[in-house]
Amino acid sequence: MNKNLVPFQNLFLGGASRQITIQEGCDKFCSFCVVPYTRGNEYSRSVEEIFAEAKNLVENGALEINLLGQNVSSYKSSIFEKSEKKQVDLAKLCNILSSLPELKRIRYITSHPSDINDELILEHKNNKKLMPFLHLPVQSGSNKILKKMNRKYSKENYIDLINKIKCEVKNMAFSSDFIVGYPGETNNDFEDTLDLINKVGFASSYSFKYSPRPGTPASLIKNQINDEILDKRLNKIQKILNDQQKKFNETFLEKEIDILFTNLGKKNNQYVGRTAFLQPVHVISSKDLVGKILKIKIERLTSFSFHGKILSS
Ligand code: SF4
Description:
four-stranded mixed β-sheet, CATH 2.40.50.140, binds iron/sulfur cluster, globular, 8 helices
């Protein structure tokens, strides 16, 4: 993993930002992944259960809810509306949850590109509570490797999807996961991944050296990539991804943006919050900011976090 980035599961600490597991398991069977074997088939919790949990969290101070699932975009359930049974997918669920007046931000993670439907894109366009930030793991930009990984989409499908979303939701930003050095990955395959990165432009990303997981089909493949090549490719991809992240972050300098404060910082009177795109923002204040959404002017960028000052309270 890029060591500058905080794992997603650590981003959502604090009472103002909470998590709800809405889905477990996965039916996709990517060749490198243990989830379908360890967590079983996809299972979605009921809308009623999720809504009750969200309502309880919001009544106890949550302003943001992160909907979690191993394959969250495959969420599928149903509700009765006027005694008629209606299907509920992730888009509809986000819409239902946004009816909670005190809930200000909704996120979801982790999605599979094949499950992002038009309804979800439209929900991002029309529902201001649904954050314009999508973590959409691509893993590789080589069609040969994507096929071996059993990812069920091509490089072109992925780029088309990103362009379609960007077209509908102008301020949408993307993060992704990359596996470097999947068995059989040639220089050309790796170059295809770099090409995809350059075509998409990611706001942040996680990149990993491939390592075999016991029990997965990929662990049985003979031509594993040697460590020297893995290291070189990882360094190269991380440099490009870090540059893209820096470039994205620099566009926020001097801007005034809404920040949800969730935690105390390490320094005296320092508070830490997040932008809509999950960038951490540090602010010094004599007043307690935790649990507030405030307009902040971004003044400095250090490494991968912002420093700013309060414009409203
Ligand atoms: S990588 Fe994601 S989509 Fe693929 S099998 Fe694992 S959980 Fe499912």
